[in-house]
Design goal:
2 domains; alpha+beta; rod-shaped; 40% helix; DUF6788; DUF6788 domain-containing protein; 2 helices; 107 residues; three-stranded antiparallel beta sheet
Length: 107
């Protein structure tokens, strides 16, 4: 075991190195534990986001416009006696809609 302090990675910003150098061994162990857990959490979030994006690409219906989320459903609205299909989805507290096309009355 060396009596010299470890050399910080070149990717670590100087201000973080300076801050860590002022910490006690106990606090450094807490920081190490927290940063390891945080790194695992962020990696997991990235994997989930990538999987969600892949799933969305794989399962996206052909007639679903790019600006309409996958969770949208089709609803029918009647306007001036005519019936129309709309994509509809929740966006926070709001309900969003986008025109899809007329309901075929010959059906």
């Amino acid at each position: 075991m060396s009596y010299e302090p470890p050399t910080p990675p070149a990717e670590l910003p100087t201000d973080i190195v300076d801050t860590l150098n002022d910490y006690s061994p106990e606090l450094l162990r807490h920081v190490a534990s927290y940063t390891e857990e945080l790194a695992e959490h962020r990696e997991r979030e990235e994997r989930l986001a990538e999987k969600e994006e892949e799933d969305e690409i794989d399962e996206r219906p052909d007639d679903l416009p790019e600006d309409v989320p996958l969770k949208a459903t089709i609803t029918i609205k009647e306007i001036n006696g005519n019936r129309y299909y709309y994509w509809q989805w929740r966006d926070g507290d709001k309900i969003r809609s986008q025109y899809k096309g007329p309901v075929d009355s010959s059906g």
